[in-house]
UniProtKB/TrEMBL annotation:
Protein's name in the database: Acyl-coenzyme A thioesterase THEM4
GO BP annotations, alphabetical order: apoptotic process; fatty acid metabolic process
Similarity field: Belongs to the THEM4/THEM5 thioesterase family.
Protein's cellular compartments: Cell projection, Ruffle membrane; Cytoplasm; Mitochondrion inner membrane; Mitochondrion intermembrane space
Domain Thioesterase: from-to ranges: 167-239
Enzyme kind, highest EC tier: hydrolase
Gene3D superfamilies named among the record's database cross-references: Hotdog Thioesterase
C-alpha cells in the first residue's frame, strides 16, 4: 500500500515538474521539495544526492559495453579493464596503472554533476562522436589511460554510418577518432587543449565494422604545446592502418576585447557551479579533468 502510494507520488511529481515549463516556477517547486526525502521515490535508480541532482536520470556513459559491441571489442575491453586500478576488499587498491575514461555526449554538463552549464553550451550541442543514440551505428569506442606511461589506448569499432570508400571507413571519420584519442591524451596531461596541428598518413584501409586499436603516446611538451602521436593498428597489432602526429595547444585562445568581459563572467559562473558541485574539495577549474576526465 505504502509502496503504491509512493509510486503515485513519484509519477505525480514527475508529471508536474515536466509539465511546468516556466523556469522560475519550476525552480520554486524544486526548492520546496526536500531533496533527501523525495529523491529515492522520484528516481527509479539509487543515486546519492551528491552524485546526481534531483529529477535527472544519470547520464549515459558511452564508454561502457553495449549489445552492438563485437566479441573482439568486448575481449579487448575486458583485457584493458583487467589492467585497471580497482578498489579491492578492505579498501586496498589493486595497482594497474590503467584507468577507463568515462564518455558523455554533453561533457561539461555531466562532468559537473548535471548542474546546468548551458550558458556556456548550446542546449542542442552534442559531442560529435557521441551524437547518435543508435548503438553500433557510428563511433563505438572506449579510451583507457595510463598516466604513468603518458599513453592511452582507444578501442574503436567503426559502425555502418562511417562508410567512405565502399566497405571501408571514411578518412574523415578516422581523423575524428585520431583527434579524439590524441586530444584526450593531451588534455589529460596538459589541461584544456585545442588541436593546433594534425598530420595523418593513411597506410591501409580500415574495413567497416572492424575493431582497431589507437595507441597514443606523449612525445614532448614545449611551453603550451603538447606533441603527441599515435598508430592505428588491427586489433591483433599485425597490420598498420594509420599513423598520426599532433600538436595541441593548452589554454583557451585569447578572446577579442569585446567578448572578454562576457566570457570572464560566464567562466566565473561555471567555476561557482563546479565549486558547489564538488563541495569546494577541489580546485574547480581542474575538477573536470581530475575527477572524471571524459573523452
Ligand atoms: C572550452 C574548451 C573545453 C574543452 C573541453 C574538452 C571536452 C573533452 C570532451 C571530450 C574529449 C574529446 C576529445 C576531443 C578533442 C578534439 C580536439 C579538437 O578537435 S579541437 C578543435 C580543432 N581545433 C581548433 O579549432 C583550434 C583552432 N585554433 C586555435 O584556436 C588557435 O590557433 C590555437 C588555440 C591552437 C592557438 O592560438 P593561440 O592564440 O592561443 O596561440 P598562438 O600564439 O597562435 O600559438 C601558440 C603556439 O602554438 C603554435 N601553433 C599554433 N598553431 C599552430 C599550428 N597550426 N601548427 C603548429 N603550431 C601551431 C604557435 O606557433 C605557438 O608556438 P610558440 O609558442 O610560438 O612556440
Amino acid at each position: 500500500m505504502l509502496r503504491h502510494g509512493l509510486q503515485v507520488t513519484r509519477v505525480f511529481c514527475q508529471t508536474v515538474l515536466h509539465t511546468v515549463s516556466a523556469r522560475p516556477l519550476r525552480s520554486a517547486i524544486l526548492r520546496l521539495i526536500p531533496r533527501t526525502a523525495l529523491l529515492p521515490w522520484l528516481s527509479s535508480r539509487a543515486v546519492s544526492v551528491s552524485e546526481w541532482p534531483l529529477l535527472s536520470s544519470p547520464p549515459r556513459d558511452y564508454s561502457l559495453p553495449n549489445p552492438s559491441w563485437s566479441t573482439e571489442m568486448r575481449r579487448l575491453y575486458e583485457y584493458y579493464d583487467s589492467l585497471c586500478e580497482k578498489e579491492m576488499e578492505g579498501g586496498e587498491k589493486k595497482p594497474g596503472g590503467w584507468g577507463r575514461l568515462p564518455s558523455y555526449n554533453r561533457t561539461l554538463k555531466y562532468a559537473a554533476g548535471g548542474k546546468c552549464l548551458s550558458k556556456l553550451l548550446k542546449e542542442k550541442a552534442r559531442l560529435f562522436t557521441r551524437n547518435t543514440e543508435e548503438q553500433g551505428a557510428a563511433f563505438e569506442y572506449v579510451v583507457f589511460m595510463n598516466k604513468s606511461e603518458k599513453r592511452c589506448v582507444c578501442i574503436f569499432q567503426a559502425g555502418h554510418l562511417l562508410e567512405g570508400p565502399p566497405g571501408n571507413v571514411h578518412g574523415g571519420a578516422i581523423a575524428t577518432i585520431i583527434d579524439t584519442s590524441l586530444g584526450t591524451l593531451a588534455g589529460y596531461l596538459s589541461g584544456i587543449v585545442m588541436t593546433a596541428n594534425l598530420n595523418i598518413n593513411y597506410c591501409s584501409p580500415i574495413p567497416l565494422g572492424s575493431v582497431v586499436l589507437i595507441d597514443s603516446v606523449l612525445d614532448k611538451v614545449e611551453g603550451r604545446k603538447t606533441f603527441v602521436s599515435c598508430q592505428v593498428t588491427s586489433s591483433d597489432g599485425s597490420k598498420l592502418h594509420t599513423e598520426a602526429t599532433g600538436n595541441a595547444v593548452a589554454g583557451l585562445p585569447i578572446p577579442r576585447q569585446s567578448q572578454h568581459a562576457t566570457l570572464k563572467k560566464k567562466m566565473s559562473n561555471t567555476h561557482r557551479h563546479l565549486k558547489h558541485t564538488f563541495h569546494g574539495r577541489l580546485n574547480p577549474s581542474f575538477a573536470y579533468f581530475k575527477v572524471c576526465f571524459p573523452c
